[in-house]
Amino acid sequence: MSMALRPRRVRRGEYLVAAICVGMITIMIWPIVMSFLASIKPPDEASRPPPHYLPQSLSLENYRSILTYHAGLAVYVGNSLAVAGLTIVFCLVLSVPAGYGLARFDIPGKEVIFLILLASMMLPFQALLVPLYLLFSHIGLTASKLGLAILHTMLQLPFSIYLMRNSFEGIPKEMEEAAVVDGATSLFTLRRIFLPLVMPGMVTVALFAFITSWNEFLGALILMNDEKQFTVPIMMTGVSSGNFGSVNWGGLQASVIVSILPCLIIYLLLQRYYMTGLLSGAVK
Amino acid sequence: MKSLSVPGFRRLLVTASLVAMVASPVSAETLTMWVRESAADPGKLMVDLWNGKHDNKIELTAIPDTQLVTKLATSVAGGNAPDLVSFDLIYMPDFMKAGFLTDVTDQLAADPHYATHVQAYKDISTYEGKTYGVGFTPDVSVLVWNKDLFKAAGLDPEKGPTTIQEIVDDARKVHALGKDTYGFWFSGACPGCNIFVTSPMMVAAGSKILPKNGTDEALTGDGVKTVLEAYKTMWDEGLIPASAETDTGANFVSAFVGGNIGIAGTGGFLISLMKREHPDFNYGMTLLPGISAGQVSGFVGGDVVAIPAKGKNEAAAREFLTWVLSDEAQLDGLAKNSILTTRTDLADNEYTKGNQPVLMTAKALAAGYVPWVFHFADMVNSDSSPWIQMLQQAIFDGDIDGAITEARAAMLEIAAR
User: What is the spatial distance between Cα A91 and Cα A96, in angstroms, rounded to a whole number?
Assistant: First the structure.
């Protein structure tokens, strides 16, 4: 076996790497473990100062309370998933052609266009909230999932285009030229040659769009007017806040755990693409 | 295109009006109502009671407390305001001045029940002679003590502190029980909590806290200094848990409920919370005291209900306002659920008889105050407000006189805007 033949020195190095990895994982996972432990405490124990690391007694009361909170957890999760799904679709439909155009065509002033697109990331969207709200209410997009998805797309689009442009630029020019020589139109080239190659980039765009939309609070709160339209972050704020800023710690931690789950599942499913996606974005 | 013949048109008209006649008695409206999250429980009790007995139904939506002002302001500007809104009464002056609310002066003047409405709610809802809302789910601050800890410390468990000095003395004895047992609790980084439970002690001792305008008086009298000195003493002696210094209100309620705190200021809302979640907790409730026995006060809080301007169902919303003051709403909606009534003539009723804590809060409501000021958010509620800076500088840093002088100047500057 080749493992057995390795010199001792290398194995010691491996231990060191492993130790560093375990250390970093511990730091990363610590808050989640703490959240989980707090979420299975009875509500009054979760709030009692000073807090203890380990639960002294176990209870699922916190989870029960968020399941039945106002409109019910299923409604909020459903809304969040619907809005996040729409956001992903919009982001992909817009950023793929935009990235293709910016990467592969000689558009006059395309660097300036790209810079303006990126510059919109610098503006805090809270500053735009009131004018946006007035505009949305004028065209009837308030209190609708479509409107909220458009808002989330707006937040996520510059970064998505940036990612897609880099993905398209990472593909060798020769492949495109070969397609052109064979008589392919630019749309055909996009569909048959590029799309399979930029798939990792698209998955990354979808992942980031999902996470942005899933976690976004202020826009959802301002645009939606009805209990049955609220998304998970609004539910979480509602569950956790009480009189005079008092916090329902148990309920908060339980909803943290519940809201992490979809992100975790999607991330694990798409992890492989995600890694390649980042690479294809970063290295040309 | 074929045009309708005259008889055909007439038939259509008759059918349409028949449909309208049949439909109108049952075509009840659905009103939308927003309530801030922390008042959602009592709000829901009231709305459920209304929905059970009226054709016009109300759909209640709870909005996180800290966001209600932003959300209401944007929705009024966008013309999408709800039909009714229940919010922290302290924002009433700012909302009335901004023209967000519908004038209901004439309706209330004609309502016989309005005469006995708690004065603090009438005051806070009136601007330039016009009235814009009524008290909905009331609350008031009180002092609570843990009877079990008092007994263990050799104190009379049935007698709460009646002066600020007694709070300090009793807290000392409770803390002597052990190092995990503390005498007193307050949320040291929560401006709202302290205007609610700390400022009434100053007011009870004769102080005036907030200025109405730039030339008004602020933080006057001995009360402010006495209370700050008492808090500082308790902090220095370790009678207050160290976590109080940074508590932004997260443990405002739960600290006392945890069972290792002797005395704390809190609100009437604690009664229904205790009844629901900790029925065996042995605690006493009394009015927030001043320097000498007999001086008492409380901060009248809770929610007012109002009709946002440009509402689509104003007539139906007005009916709800009238109903809120009716015997049915006051007794079956509020009193039956251990919540105070907002009408003084109903404060003593079949549900509150013998319920010592509720009767105590009714007293506090009568003795309490509510500051009618603009910019309350800047003067008090914001994280860097002069109010919270004064408390922190005086209690944790120890510079009481400097803290009061600086806060006074900052408050007057804000009030002059």
Answer: 8
Domain with CATH 3.40.190.10 in chain B: 29-139+301-367, 140-298+374-415
Residue B251 to residue A49, Cβ atoms within 8 A: yes
What CATH number corresponds to the domain at position A185? 1.10.3720.10
Q: Which of A195, A221, A180, A210 is nearest to A270 (CA)?
A: A210
Q: Is residue A49 part of a domain?
A: no
The Cα angle at residue B288 between residues B228 and B371, in degrees rounded to 5: 80
Q: What pLDDT, in 10s, does the model give residues B339-392?
A: 889 998 888 888 888 788 888 888 888 888 999 999 998 999 888 899 999 999
* Residue B27, Cβ density class (10 Å: 0-12 exposed, 13-18 middle, ≥19 buried): exposed
Read off the tokens for B222: 């001995």
Give kind and range of the element (H or E) at residue A197: helix A195-197
Cα–chain-centroid distance for residue B126?
Answer: 17
Nearest to B320 by CA among B85, B95, B97: B85
In a domain, A46, yes or no: no
Strands B288-289 and B283-286: unpaired
CA distance B59 to chain A (A): 8
- Quick one: CA dihedral B269, B271, B276, B281, positive or negative? positive
Task: Count up the domains in chain A and report the number.
Answer: 1
Residue numbers in A near B59 (CB within 8 A): 226-227
Q: Could you give the residue ranges of the DSSP H alpha helices within B99-145?
A: 105-109, 119-124
Q: Which residues contact A239 (CB under 8 A, 6 or more apart)?
A: A65, A66, A69, A248, A251, A252, A254, A255
Asked if B40 and B60 count as a contact pair (C-beta separation under 8 A), the reply is: yes
pTM of the model: 0.78
| CATH dotted code for B140-298+374-415 | 3.40.190.10
CA distance A93 to B79: 32
Tens-place pLDDT, residues A31-80: 999 999 989 988 777 776 667 788 888 888 889 888 888 888 999 999 99
Query: Are the Cβ atoms of B254 and A47 closer than 8 angstroms?
Result: yes
User: Average pLDDT over chain B, rounded to whole?
Assistant: 88
Question: Strand B261-267 vs strand B296-297: parallel, antiparallel, or unpaired?
Answer: unpaired
Kindly tell me the burial class for residue B166, based on how many C-beta atoms sit within 10 Å of its own C-beta (0-12, 13-18, 19 or more). Answer: middle
For B316, residues 6+ apart whose C-beta sits below 8 A from its C-beta are: B29, B31, B56, B83
Architecture of the domain delimited by B29-139+301-367: 3-Layer(aba) Sandwich (3.40)
User: Which residues in chain A touch residue B61, judged by CB atoms under 8 angstroms apart?
Assistant: 225-227
Q: Which of B37, B44, B66, B141 to mutate to test the interface with A (most CBs of A within 10 A)?
A: B37
SS3 helix, strand, coil % of chain B, rounded to 5?
50, 15, 35
Q: Using CA atoms, how far apart are residues A72 and A66, in angstroms rounded to an integer? A: 7
Structural domain for A79, as ranges: 63-282
Smallest Cα–Cα separation from B99: which of B65, B76, B83? B76
Interatomic CA distance for residues B88 and B68, integer angstroms = 9
Write phi, then psi, for A42 (nearest 5 degrees): -65, 150
Which candidate in A41, A47, A246 is best for mutational testing of the B interface (most B CBs within 10 A)? A246
